User: Fold these one by one.
Assistant:
Number 1:
Amino acid sequence: MKSVVVLQSNYVPWKGYFDLIHDADQFVFYDDLQYTKRDWRSRNKIKAAGGSEWITIPAGSDTNRLICEVELKDATWQQKHWKTVAQNYRSCPHFERYRHFFEDFYLARPWSNLSEMNQYLIRSISEEFLGIRTEFRDSREFSLSGQKQERLLEAVIKAGAERYISGPAAKSYIQPERFSEAGIDLVWKDYSGYPEYPQRFPPFEHGVSILDLLFNVGPDAPWYIWGWREGPLAA
């Protein structure tokens, strides 16, 4: 049964985002939707000595554009973000393991499009660091029409889904019977039960960027995202 997830690209998302990707046979970036400012598309949280800290990309306040149309006109944020990340994580056990990749991402590549940047980062982390083999696609391939649920359902159908996996936030607008009528099994993702890991600056917080997990546990990251459901962490 082919499982599909359709979701907007986010900036260095939390581990639950990658849990969804791992669940799916095909993950569709849903970036031809209206951009919402002060949202996960352009910001996320890291752990810092003073508590959780936002790292935010200056993407402008104009909401009259799609996510895929958001241009990044000032690249100075890239160096600032890397400085903040390095300051807070350089003493973590696995910082050096991933340092070259993220230095290249932040310091050697001037990003001008938010969606393109987010998609690159999500694909790279999924494939190179988490060993995820899910197929990635973009909703713009499907020439979608309609609004909200009908548009989403069209994307799911055109992706060839037999099962659609959704985050729990979509319960506010998704009508399960519409998916049932289309012959698609609707599954709600459960984010509960994630095990804690050695994290700097207590108290522990699950809802921070994947950067936190990678720098702290390195190659064991997949176990803390989905592997724990299958058995204990190998010594």
Number 2:
Amino acid sequence: MSAPLKPSGAAVVVRNLRRSYGERIVIDSLNLRIERGEFVALLGESGCGKTTLLRALSGLDPINGGSIDGPRLPAVVFQEPRLLPWETLSRNVALGLAPGPQSLAAAQAALAEVGLGERLEDWPRNLSGGQAQRVALARALVQEPQLLLLDEPFAALDALTRIKMQRLVKHLIERHQPGVLLVTHDVDEAIALADRALIMRGGAIAAEYRVTEASRPALRETLLAQLGVDADTAADTATH
């Protein structure tokens, strides 16, 4: 079965973005374009502005200069699932959709996509961490978003669950074709999922790399070096 054609046009265009907190400038003259159907991973040291950029794109934070040309309310999946404990899984997924039978039917289809189609009337308290993130992903994708923002959504999961979730996300993104920005500290995750990997430094995009099957082995070392991490040290850390 052939892969679906990627939709044309930009999911979001950022021009000369500036964001500051008082006297402290966090983002300065940042430019970014993500195409529909493109998966972009954003890496950088803690405090470089990754989450600030994501919050600006999501509309959660104001900006102090520049422009963001994209959807007013993109879909966001955070590190925590942020499910409403007093609502069933199907109603959690239907949040943000117009009330009615069509929205519940869409929520049911979305839950089936993430492997939870048998648990429509279950409650968030009965879910594992990975299952809760599946619901959060279903809630984001049921909107058929132009832009999907992923803020380290697998960081709190164990290694095996994280791998399963990465594979699920890759499949679902290929199916729904939003533009995606993934904020992550995990280089291996970035090169496994992304079409393009960006390094953020000093409040701007310092480097970008196209990710291909052939480039992945060498790109891992390049990205680690950009982040100030020795590849051997990273390998030792991953095995412990």
